[in-house]
Amino acid sequence: MKDSSKTTKKVRFVVQAAIISALYATMTILQNVLLPGSASMAVQFRISEVLTVLALFTPAAIPGLTIGCIAANISSLAVLGPYDLIFGSLASFFAALSMYALRKVRIFKLAIPAALMPALFNGIFVGFEIDFFFINNLKFNFIDFLFQGSLVALGELAVLLILGLPFAYLIERQKLDRLLK
Fold it and tell me: Which CATH number characterizes residue 138's domain?
């Protein structure tokens, strides 16, 4: 019986990660097709980032979001080269990992500290990427990094505060979080 339970948990984990990955990639690519640049520029409002709140409910969101980001960023290779594939995906991985670690830390019953993680990591990683590779031709400029990182973080904060936290609240309120465990 124990082996069956372990197998079921492993299968559930893989299926959840695959669904999250597919949703993230599809939403990002579709947004870029319908609203070019809105999901891939320095100031972006990547609607698929609302899915990062799933890291509050299941560890499967960590590989799911990371792989989804890789898949979405592959679609923009022609414009951004391999840089966003590397830096954006690393930011997604560390943000999801941190969100899962902070999932029980609440302010006013909301996972606000966890919701700040995508803004923090994308601001740092993608801000560096934009500054170093696109703005300053392989040179680091701290002021440009702060500016670009702030723009990226601002877009992330907007998505997470406007859409993400209400989405997480809805999942908890409707007790849908039980389905993700």
Answer: 1.10.1760
